[in-house]
Amino acid sequence: MKLLQMIEKKQRNSRVVARSESLVQGLPVTILVQKAIFAKKALERPTMNPIQATHQRSIQQKDAFWREEAAGVHWETPFTEVLDYSNPPFARWFVGGRTNLCFNAVDRWLDTQADDPALVWVSTEVEQEVTYSRRDLYREVNAVAAMLQAQGVVRGDRVLIYMPMVPEAVFAMLACARLGAIHSVVFGGFASVNLAQRIDDASPKVIVCADAGSRGGKVTPYKPLLDKAIALAQRPPAKVLVVNRGLFAFEPVAGRDLDYASLRHQYEGAVVPVTWLESSEPSYVLYTSGTTGKPKGVQRDTGGYAVALASSMQRIFNGKPGDTYLCTSDIGWVVGHSYIVYGPLIGGQTTILYEGTPVRPDGGILWSLVERFKVNTMFSAPTAIRVLKKHDESLLKKYDLSTLRALYLAGEPLDEPTAQWISDGLGRPIIDNYWQTETGWPILAAQPGIANVPTKFGSPSFPVYGFDVRVLNEETGADLGPNQKGVVAIVPPLPPGAMTTIWGDDARFVETYFSSVPGRQVYSTFDWGSKDDDGYWFILGRTDDVINVAGHRLGTREIEESINCHAAVAESAVVGIADQLKGQVAVGFAVLKDAGLFSQSEQLLKLEGDIMRLVDEQLGPVARPARVRFVTALPKTRSGKVLRRAIVAVCEGRDPGDLTTIEDPSALEQIKDSL
Ligand code: PRX
Questions:
Q1: pTM of the model
Q2: How far is CA 57 from the centre of its chain?
Q3: Structural domains in the chain?
Q4: How many whole angstroms from 288 Cα to the centroid of ligand 1?
Q5: Over the stretch 603-628, which tens digit does the pLDDT of each residue have?
């Protein structure tokens, strides 16, 4: 474009206050006016930092931006279109491209890293440690793929994985990906009723499980819980593949249960060709909690996920092939999917799979792993750090952490004192990052792979490229400015790697996530948030009834349904109450059918224990309320809605706020008294 045309175009886009062809200091006046306008604007608006500039480009030039990022993964067939958004809010990324997660995680690195460690399994529970090179990983994954194939598992079939933190769980996930089968990993802390619900929703052809896990030195059986779940399920699997660790004796079910070790022996050396999937074909379904009692199967695509993870390994985690990554999450949660299994492996890094707690044999175990394996990137949860705060602080200084570039923390709010403590202790950047099962990778984070911009404790920094994230007024849907609290929402399309739908229920996907902000079809995170004058974001808690216990996302509705199963209970309300260590704990309030029991304290104590055991049995220890208290009525509005926010406020010693709609004020008094 000629200079004059360029000037004219810019002028059309800005305010033209003068136009003359006369010259001042050899420059046309129009240029000088233009310069003055830009200088004034720069003064009014702080300049963007490189993270914000990258973000802006990713939103304004989606196609160009994501085409470049997509070069980070192997495409067997190139895509023909970066984004198909013809059916909002459903987005299809990298249309027509064919790829495979397992190929990108394993096969792709065989040429350059066949003998380098790909997966290191460390168990302080059973005192074992095994290193798998990329070649070993290839061998193991192919063997499991062959086992599954022999059971008739093909592209699009579901395989449910209910496993502790053992390498076979990773092999099974990658084997599914290799075959184009859809895995659904269920967290080991969930019990039979949860499991049965997920079995019925996913209707898996095969379930892969282990006899048992171990936590804090105590064996936690898996197989009997699975057997119970299968008995409850309407759509049981044809086969169950059992990894027998020799931790818990069990009777295999004839004709159904298969022994992993025997089959592995049989299929050792098998080579199973990769099934190339169209980019939008599902890779996995991961269930998560929401407002209703029915968990949602978050469905992820293949190509978009591979691209998002490959990109995040560089831009957010600032890593490179050959690095070592330690993530202390669990494969049953989204963080484990993205940053124990797929992210590091797709990024050509060594991933450490750790079975154990952060405090056994002592509070230095994680740092000793960093030293021994020369870990470059570590990812954990704020609760783990709060637990460590109670242990000998000198353990933070005992090990050589010179290889560690940064510690990433996510899953729950990272309080300032904890961030300060660990930052002082480690002398390393602490990177709070905010995201959800639904998004698959961070929405807000510092992004040192783009630029080193100072962080603020208490803030997960800036929007990550690809996420057009906003703070909106929950009643009007209007965008809010700095320092105003509102709902954190994402203007669709959601970026590559985010959920594509709810498994088997497109309508629920739209209804749940895109219909809560008035007048706008935007994705709601169901979190409150705000940003400050410098563009740093803050997350201020959930807008819905989801609670977060030690980084574990739980639906209060599911826990209530379980409590209500107790024969003595008429109804109940479960809320999340602030807790110094776990962030929140679940507290249940139950109304008994027999009001006569109400005055018998010994009976009530026994009932509390019974109810906790029931929840434990049905949903698993992770969902067990910290306390159950008994009341004769729940505080409700006149239309019958439980006033949860008021209950939480009272429990936390705060003002319950506006109570004009309460039916019976004494019900809230009872809540207070019951504590
Ligand atoms: O409420 C937010 C909280 O955890 C929720 C998502 O949990 P989940 O689906 O298990 O995914 C975790 C992925 C890291 C969010 O809606 N949350 C997550 N990270 C943060 C957070 N709250 C505050 N700060 C965070 N960094």
A1: 0.90
A2: 25
A3: 2-44 (no CATH), 546-674 (3.30.300.30)
A4: 12
A5: 999 999 999 999 999 999 999 999 99
